[in-house]
Design goal:
2 copies of one chain form a homodimer.
Chain A (H helix, E strand, L loop, with lengths): L7 H15 L6 H7 L14 H24 L4 H18 L1 H7 L8 H16 L9 H21 L10 H17 L11
The first copy, chain A, binds a DNA duplex (30 and 30 nucleotides) through loops.
DNA sequence: CCATTTGCCTAACCAACTTAGGCAACCTTA
DNA sequence: TAAGGTTGCCTAAGTTGGTTAGGCAAATGG
């Protein structure tokens, strides 16, 4: 029988494309095998199992996202960097919904994907340099930014914002502005009195 | 054969408990049936299918969470209300991880669960009264708060915060403080100059 | 107390995942 | 370039989860 030229990398790329096309939750070994005109068990020569393939997709997604973010924040600082960071993140999620869903998997601590995820913290930390928060505020801020951006994009993708006429775009801008305000008036270092 | 006294409600409650015990992703009709000493097909007299049962759990979870939030914000306003809201949300997620995972499902627009989800926006809106933002800022703020709290709790549950010594508890407090600062210095209405 | 409804059953099928074991295509190296 | 081993894809078969069809017995209610 003619060989199909499979490999872990080829399968992962195909799986990532498939996830974007049909949705991550419908990403199945059968679908990937079909795409290569191959039977399901053949995939086991290249990936450990279905879950491992999904984790590979997550690692690819997190890596691509980190690359985009790195590109976006390069040469910017403060509010500009924050805006670019957030836009890169949200744009990626919109362009690659399946990969983004993969990136939200619970990642095994020792996985390649979890390693890549750490790059995200570092990038976020770099972005915060312009705000000069110092520790431990900077760590808190890294967590805050990650949470807000993830939460917003997740809710938007889930349709939670589509029942109200207010444009999501405008709310997104407001959220980024709000983050900027919070970072420039960081609570612990510079408490703001009640009005 | 003796009847087991099943009903949609009983099954949903059991499924919710099971989800908390074994994880939402492992919630299966077989597991629910086993708990009642009944065969899987018997469940189809009471729920349409497995997905419907999961949606019922999501609706229950969202309802319980809304109740907790309502209780928490009652009689409080401003920062107190925000802190109580956030704590109620996070505590629920910690106590009921399976139900909370259910609540994060993508909800069909016309579902009971989606209806309950709307109550959350209203509660968040109520919480914001003390900040007197006005529209459309209030809608933007509702979205921001939901995103931040969801994102933080999701990342915390996924273990993203456990690789760094900084206490999650402290970061949580900082995040809530940061939200409060942002709300009291809402960007559009009261822009803050660069330092 | 008979008729109807309802609840749970068995049997059977499908889809997705997985393992075992075989044969043919590829690669090496003499 | 032929013999060797290695690798890639195959078929067969088992598992689990979800689902439908159809039957019998328990509950219900006139």
């Amino acid at each position: 029988m003619a060989r199909a030229g499979l490999s872990a990398e080829v399968l992962t790329v195909a799986a990532a494309e498939l996830a974007d096309e049909i949705g991550f939750e419908r990403l199945t070994l059968g679908a990937v095998a079909r795409r290569f005109g191959v039977k399901e068990p053949s995939l086991y020569s290249h990936v450990k199992n279905a879950q491992a393939l999904r984790l590979h997709v997550a690692a690819v997604a997190l890596g691509e996202l980190a690359d985009r973010i790195a590109e976006a924040v390069a040469g910017r600082s403060g509010r500009d960097a924050l805006t670019a960071f957030a836009a890169a993140y949200r744009d990626y999620a919109k362009e690659h919904p399946g990969r983004f869903a993969a990136a939200r998997m619970t990642l095994p601590v020792e996985s390649r994907a979890a390693e890549v995820a750490r790059r995200h913290s570092e990038l976020t930390r770099a972005l915060l340099r312009g705000y000069a928060l110092g520790e431990p505020a900077e760590t808190d801020a890294v967590r805050l930014i990650g949470a807000t951006v993830l939460g917003f994009v997740t809710l938007e993708a889930g349709g939670s914002y589509s029942h109200h006429p207010r444009a999501v775009e405008a709310s997104w801008g407001a959220a980024v502005d709000a983050l900027d305000v919070a970072l420039r008036n960081w609570p612990v270092s510079r408490p703001v009195p009640n009005p």
